[in-house]
Amino acid sequence: MPRPTWTRASDAELLQMRFCDLKLRFAGSKLERRLKKKLYHELERRGITFRPHMWLAEEWFSPDGTPGIAVPFYLAHPRLMRLERQMMRQVEGGNSNWMMRILRHEAGHAIDTAWRLRRRARWREVFGPASLPYPDRYKARPGSRRYVRHLGEWYAQAHPTEDFAETFAVWLKPNSDWRRSYAEWPARRKLQLMEEFMEEVRTTTARVRSRRFVEPLDENRRTLAEHYAEKLARRGYPRRCLADNLLQRVFTARPKHHRLPPASSWLRACKPQLVDSVARTTGSDRYAAHQMLRMAIGRAEALGLVLRKPQRQTLPRARRLLASLVRSYEQGKSPQMSL
Question: I need a surface site. Which of 121, 182, 223, 278 has the fewest CB within 10 A?
Fold first, then answer.
C-alpha cells in the first residue's frame, strides 16, 4: 500500500485535515493484532473468554451500552504520534507498558457493560452509584487507601465507574500481588468483590453483545485542529497555589543565563532519582511521588520556567520542592485533576 501523502505534510497542514480523510485502517493492521494479542492473552490467562472489539476513534474510551474499546487514532501511524507529542507533550499509551495499563482499564469498563454489573446491589454498595454525575474535575485524596492505584493521578477516585475499571485492571495484571500489596487497605474489599464478579463472567454469557463502533474515525468530519483545541482546553485548568509558589522559588521565568534548560525538560530527565529520593525521605510510596512530579512538570511547562541555577545546585532544591508537595497533599491539600 502506498504511503499516504499526509505523512509528508507539515504539522500546520496536517492539523487542517479531517479525521475521515486520513483513511486510517485498523482492521487487519499490525496495531490491531498487537493490541488484541496482548489483551486477549491476559484475559485468557484469567479464564475469561470475553473478547472486547476495538476500533479507531479520537481518544481512548469504552462507551456506555457497547462492550468495546475505542483506540486513539495517533497510535495508527508514527507521523500522527509525532503530532500528538508535539501538541500534548506526551503520547498516551505510546509505549507497551502504558498501553497495557490503559487496555486493562478499558477492558474493565467493557466487562462492566457486557454483564451489566453496575446494576448489582453489591457493585453499588462497594463502588458507589454509577448514576452519579460524571465530573469535569475531581479532587484527589492522595493518602486514601480506599482506592487502588493503577493509572496516574489517583484516577480511581474520579467516579465509581472509574474505580471499578481501575480495580479490574489491578486484578487482571499478570502476576498481580494485590492480596499482599493491598492486604491492609480497605480497597482490598473491592478486589475481593472483583474475584466474585469474574467467577460469574467466566461461567455465564454476556448480556450485552453489541459490536457497533461508537464515534468511528472514518465517519468523523472534524479536523485535527478542532480536536486538539478542545483537548488542550480540557487540560488547561489551573494547578496553582502551593505548587506554583514552590516552583518559582527553584526555577525562574526570567533567566539570566539563557543556556540553562527548561525546568520541565530538566525535571523529566531527573525523574528516576527525584522519585527515589523523595520516596525515601518522606516515607511515601513511589506512586505519590511520581504523581506530584507529573503535576510539577505540567505547571513548570505552563509557566515557562527555566533553571535559575546550574543543575548541580538545582537538584537538592528540586528534591526539597517535591518532598514539600508530597507532604502537603498527603495532609489533605489535594490536587484538582481534570478528566
Answer: 121
Contact indicator for 166, 155 with CB cutoff of 8 Å: yes
Give the distance, in angstroms, between the CA of residue 22 and the centroid of all CA atoms in the same chain.
25
User: Helices 311-330 & 271-282, crossing angle to 10 degrees?
Assistant: 50
- Tens digits of residue pLDDT in 122-181: 999 999 999 999 888 788 887 789 999 999 888 999 999 999 999 999 999 999 999 999
Cα 103 to chain centroid distance, Å, stands at 10
* Extents of the domains making up the chain: 5-219, 238-338
Residue 287: partners with Cβ closer than 8 Å, 6 or more residues away: 149
Residue 147 cell numbers, joined: 482506592
Does residue 118 contact residue 112 with C-beta atoms inside 8 Å?
yes
Helix (H) or strand (E) holding 81: helix 78-88
Q: Over the stretch 34-52, which tens digit does the pLDDT of each residue have? A: 999 999 999 999 999 999 9
What values do phi and psi take at 232, rounded to 5?
-70, -35
Sign of the Cα torsion 161, 164, 167, 173 reads negative
